[in-house]
Design goal:
The chain has 9 helices and 6 strands, in the order E-H-H-E-H-E-H-H-H-E-H-H-E-E-H. The chain is an alpha/beta fold. A hairpin with a 7-residue loop joins strand 5 and strand 6.
Length: about 250
């Protein structure tokens, strides 16, 4: 039995107010990222709303037999707003299913290093900066935070849920930059070096689309094959600027 979805799209949320604050902090050389709301409550920026509308229009342009049938979202406000914009644009057809919010799709937790730029980490937590440099970003876990491996662990559970409940369906996931990369790591059976090389090539753009299609294989559960990665044509086609800053809570380097 083929247990995977027939198609899987993973969309990063639109530009958020946190992305804007992070850009400002780095441009000023600040140690901290100034934003009042807790990260789960950070909304889309005005540009992020436009990006979300653009990607929603792209999904709406697909034939009804090609549109997503299921939509799953991170609980973070910026992801839920992006998913809601896709639904409102008709991206799931005339009778869309309810958006399912799943906490396993949340952004990577940075713990004690939340809202710090790399300068802030070096100034306030120099031992952590050294430890991260030695261990590498894939395995490094900040105090009270998560490593990439921790994110991968919860996403393995998420994929099990998707394969159990939505085999043969067309599934849309709306989440975050590291989540997109960690899904690639699992689905494509990559190793540390391969996924970090993909990460080093460039940031996952806001409202970009990563798409997989099922390849059925006799005598197995089939497998998902990558069709598109960091696909931004839906945003570009409407003349909306493309942005790709990491989330506010994620220090660069």
């Amino acid at each position: 039995m083929q247990r995977w979805p027939e198609r899987l799209w993973i969309v990063r949320h639109g530009q958020s107010a946190g992305n804007v604050a992070k850009d400002a902090a780095y441009s000023l050389g600040s140690a901290t990222i100034e934003i009042e709301a807790r990260d789960v409550d950070v909304p889309l920026s005005e540009l992020g709303k436009q990006q979300s509308q653009a990607v929603g229009n792209w999904f709406a342009s697909l034939a009804d037999t090609q549109k997503p049938q299921v939509i799953l979202s991170s609980p973070y406000l910026r992801a839920r707003q992006t998913g809601a914009a896709i639904v409102a644009a008709g991206g799931l057809g005339d009778k869309p299913a309810d958006m399912i919010v799943d906490e396993r799709l949340r952004e990577k937790e940075l713990g004690a290093l939340d809202r710090l730029t790399w300068r802030g980490i070096e100034e306030l937590y120099p031992k952590e900066a050294d430890h991260r440099a030695r261990l590498g970003k894939f395995y490094y876990r900040p105090p009270a935070g998560e490593s990439w491996c921790d994110v991968i662990l919860r996403l393995r559970s998420e994929l099990d849920t998707i394969s159990l409940h939505y085999p043969g369906k067309r599934v849309l996931v709306v989440a975050h930059q590291v989540v997109v990369l960690c899904f690639r790591y699992i689905i494509e059976n990559l190793d540390e070096q391969a996924i970090l090389a993909i990460d080093a090539e460039g940031q996952v753009a806001n409202c970009s689309i990563t798409e997989y299609r099922l390849q059925a294989e006799e005598g197995s559960t089939g497998r998902l094959l990558l069709q598109r990665y960091n696909f931004v044509a839906p945003v570009v086609s409407e003349g909306t600027p493309v942005t790709s800053a990491p989330d506010a809570k994620v220090a660069s380097r």
